[in-house]
Design goal:
Elements: H1 3-17, E1 46-50, H2 62-68, H3 76-84, E2 91-96, H4 105-123, E3 147-148, E4 151-152, E5 171-176, H5 181-186, H6 189-213, E6 219-221
Parallel strand pairs: 2-5
Antiparallel strand pairs: 1-5, 1-6, 3-4
Helix pairs in contact: 4-6
Region (Disordered): 18-40, 123-163
Length: 222
Amino acid sequence: MSKPAAALAKQVIDHHVKPTPIGAGAGRTVKRPPSNTPPPQQQYLRFQYESHPKPINCTTFATTKDVANDPSHPFYIRTQRRLRAFNTGKLHWRVQCSVDVSKRGFVRSWAVKRVQGAIARRLGTQEGKREESDGAGDDAGQESTSVRGPTVDVARGEGDHARPNALGLSGALLIFLPKDSKLALTATKAQVEESAEWVLKEVTRLQAEARRKGSHRPRSGR
């Protein structure tokens, strides 16, 4: 078949295959109504979550890891005892604030406590207290909620201890405040509360997904 004949045949085929517009609106572009779903927004908080954590996990301080690997350290036995008693059926969580936000510990503590309160209220647990670190290495500027039974147990450089919560969550959850000091320190209460709600909803979803798939891979959200 010659090229002109082939082109003509294609036009005929296209003419019969393509639907022909009918009615007064023929030839007009139909606009879809705007979606009611708002575009995703950048959350105030970020997090890392492990659904099946080991005793040393994302919430564990670097100093605790160092002590656990140093048999000559005076706190080695006590640390190993705590690690052996790690309860995988509870939610171990900690809020971390970078020294980039502020060099002053009391400023970081204030920012962290706002988030701790928002998370704790939703979990139905105590808000916890600031956990002091040795002020060096990766632990500087980090805060932790450490809850055991009806009282708050705070120790230097120790990992978290949690209790059953109202949402039935378990695992290890590390929550990060923004490194941008302006954002971390000027966020409204509504922003903090909304982001805390988002974190726990995401963790609930990830936990259900991990249980369904049997996944042990750490997950993060931002």
